[in-house]
Amino acid sequence: MKSVMVSLTTNELATVLALCGYETMASQILNSMGLEENSVVFDRFIEDTELSLTSKGLKDNSRDSMIVTELEELIHTLVQSKRKVRCIRKNRILFIHFIEGEERTLFQEIRNNNHVFSFESNSNGFESKLLKHFELNEEITNPDINVPTLQLSEEIYNQLHQMDSEILESMINDKQLAEPLKQFLTDFRFNLQEFDNLSLIEMDYVNDYFNVKQVLFLLRSESLVWHLDYENIHQKEVYVVPYDSKIYSNKLNEEISLFFYEEKD
Questions:
Q1: What is the pLDDT of residues 83-107, one digit of tens each?
Q2: What pLDDT, on a 0 to 100 scale, did the predictor assign at position 66?
Q3: Fewer C-beta within 10 Å: the chain N or C terminus?
Q4: CB under 8 Å to 188, separation ≥6 — which residues?
Q5: In this model, does residue 52 exceed pLDDT 90?
Q6: CA 249 to CA 127: how far, in whole Å?
Q7: Edge-to-edge, what's the strand order for the sheet holding 114-121?
Q8: Closest Cα partner for 4 from 79, 109, 113?
Q9: Phi-psi domain of 217 (left: phi exceeds 0; alpha: psi -120 through 50; beta: other)
Q10: What letter does residue 176 receive in the DSSP assignment?
Q11: Rounded Cα–Cα distance for residues 189 and 180 (Å)
């Protein structure tokens, strides 16, 4: 079961957070946008946002929060969720907000300053969302990948993100470079010289607590996924491990489920 609740611009989200009593979070968003309170620009921002919320049928001046019940409940769920997963793929972000004691999850998809919220059942896990968001193959195409794990020094790994595009291009065209490394560098260049990532986040708004428990880095390729293994970073080594896309998305789903349903001390 899927229920699309609402689509909000970043401006609208900041406003409804404030209306629901979460002024600190609203202020953080406004500050990131360069808006100063009690300014002419800020006053115009409030006016325009209230008009846009009204046009969407989301205002209700008879209520204390001045927004409709469904939207207020969504905002409280969003903020009070204490376990979240953040998935970043280029300029797109997917948040998965765990709801304690319920059989549904709140999803938040962000792109071009637009936030689309939906509640969906937990019964089928999160794999379909992950496949779509990270643009991975939905079928097992290469279960026994005949591609070796790549070993990079910490120095080379750090240089990759800042490497001049011409130097990276020359490495890709170097006939003496091993094919798996060429493929990885090609994928890395195509992804704007950055990894996609998935973060497991613990948060408590009331107690002003925020902790990124774990971050997983990945890079999409045409027939596989490169996974960044940095457990040996203390030894100045980084490994890039190839996985079948479907198998990897299943592993991500398992990691999320363990994080959401693990017992807390």
A1: 999 999 999 999 999 999 999 999 9
A2: 93
A3: C
A4: 160, 168, 194, 219
A5: yes
A6: 6
A7: 2-9, 114-121, 104-111, 92-98, 83-89, 196-204, 209-220, 225-229, 237-243, 150-153
A8: 109
A9: beta
A10: T
A11: 14
- Lookup result for tokens 């637009």: 114
> Phi/psi zone of residue 180: left (φ > 0), alpha (ψ -120 to 50 degrees), beta?
alpha
Distance of CA 209 to the CA centre of its chain: 19
* End-to-end Cα, the chain, rounded Å: 32
Structure token digits, residue 35:
């808006």
Name which of 221, 217, 218, 201 is nearest 209 in CA terms: 201
**At a CB cut-off of 8 Å and minimum separation 6, what does 26 contact?**
14, 15, 17, 18
- φ and ψ at 161, to 5 degrees? -70, -30
Q: Is 5 in a helix, a strand, or coil?
A: strand
Please check whether residue 253 is in contact with residue 125, taking contact to mean a CB–CB distance below 8 angstroms. Answer: yes
Q: List, in sequence order, every residue forming a beta bridge with 100; answer none if it has no partner.
A: none
pLDDT band at 140 (very low <50, low <70, confident <90, very high): low
Return the DSSP state at 58. -
Residues constituting the chain: 265
Between CA 147 and CA 153, with CA 151 as vertex, the angle to 5 degrees is 160
Report whether 180 contacts 148 (CB < 8 A): yes
